[in-house]
Write a structure and sequence with these properties.
The protein has 363 residues and is of the alpha/beta class. Helix content is 53%, strand content 10%. Strand 1, helix 1 (18-29) and strand 2 (34-40) form a beta-alpha-beta unit. The longest helix has 31 residues, at 301-331.
Length: 363
Amino acid sequence: MALELAIILPTLNERGNLVPLVERIEQALGRDGWEVLIVDDDSADGTADEGRDLAREDRRVRVIQRIGRRGLSSAAIEGFCATAAPFVAVMDADHQHDPALLPDMLASLKAGEADICVASRFAEGASPEDWDAPERERLSGMANRVARAITGVELTDPMSGFFMLPSSRARALAPRLSGIGFKILLDLLATSDAPMQVKEFPLNFAARREGESKLDRAILFDFLAGLYDKTLGRVIPTRFALFGTVGGLGVIVHYAVLAVLLGGMTATFWKAQLGAVLVAMSFNFWLNNWLTYRDKRLKGWGAVLAGWAGFCATCAVGGFANVAVATLLESQGLFWALAALAGILIGSVWNYALSSRFVWGRF
């Protein structure tokens, strides 16, 4: 039987889930006509090695191990471009998505009933009872309302991570997809020039079998970053916009700390200013690590402390560039406010470039 369907499984620490999931996929689709692409974000638990062990015994399984890259959306895009199957599905490897839906979704696409099939947690007949995550359920409901307004597509669950579409359509959209974060379906729907015809399938959303969730409390910010990227991301890079936003919040923190130290203590100005600078830089580092660079997040005390020290050094260099450029421009007759703004922009770009390279990147 010819290859018809590729199932992309973006993974992060899912070692114990792979074998039973492939067995469930086989039960749903039969022995032939499909393949599984495990796109692993260099899991610490050896998920990629487990996938390779499985692939040696089962030619329907392939592994893409990614080094220095993270995120479900970008993993799905790599999967779109790595298969010859005419149809492609994306689903979680944690057993929360039921493979039993795959045959009906495939049949619907082959019959021309839809451009994309989506498994919905909120469609009539679906049940999220086993999800046991009321906070995420509330976030999903709010995000769904915003997503419907952005995409113009009426869906009960546009934030679903389980869907299927023709591979040619996915690859055609791939160059314009942002690849940011975890909501690839929203990216596809928002990028398509013409609204996609969608068919939903009710999903009984199960509890995670084992392993580590790819989502965290930054999911709402991740969602907002995705929306920004689809609207203004071509003007100002999304990560730089996030970095600048964090810097703006850091200015507020700086002045708040400075006011407290000067108002409630006997500290001289330079001591208060030094304390405010250290607190603001620490705040900026923490928020950037949690949000701006969440796909490259530093973990463990050693990595975090080294990253904090590198970030402080980077900011010191950027601060020097800020002052030097502003002073030079002001001395050449430029209005002081414009000179200061130019210095801030130069310092911000410098800090962003060095931080991206030497704190959250690779030497």
